[in-house]
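Hello forum,

I keep getting stuck at the same step: I have a sequence, I want structure tokens, and every attempt I make locally crashes halfway through. Rather than fight my setup again tonight, could one of you with a working pipeline run this one for me? It's a single chain of 185 residues.
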Amino acid sequence: MRFALPVVRLSRFVMRTALITFAALSTAAATPMISNTLYAQDLGIKVGATAPDAPLETLDGKTVQLSTLMAGKPTLLEFWATWCGNCKQLEPAMLAAHAKYKDRVQFIAVAVSLNQSVERVKAYQARFKVPLTFLYDRRGDASEAYDAPATSYVVLIDKAGKVVYTGVGGTQNLDAAIAKALGGL
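Reply #2:
Ran it on my machine without issues. Output:
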């Protein structure tokens, strides 16, 4: 008797995240004295690029184009997950930046679909009262369009639609990044 294994299609984001995690863990194990920090500019969308559009879902299941939310206003995107330790570490800085700039900058948490559901995102938002706009990237379209290397990946886009900053990790300087998006204010 022969058994057929199911064919599984993994998005580029899932495959890249797995490879980066493996590489980071391998590097850390082999060379504990060398920093293994990954910089978004090595992997993600390039600073100066035009911000791409992508379809996402609201938490109530409606499709929305990312460009409609960014129109004419600087935007901070964080590719995020409920299980992401770096995202949780970055959250206080994100909340402080939101409190300071919420009238001038659009804050969007793009929830990746890897090991996560809309229900988990809703439960997280309800429990922790995070005031960002949460969108769900069910098919990985936004993750792929922005070449997101991992969760906690932040992209700042100015009001003209140009990428002015990218970064990964829980200790990013969001004030400096937002200043770039606001034109040095």
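The first helix runs from residue 12 to 30. If your local run keeps crashing, start a new thread with the error log.
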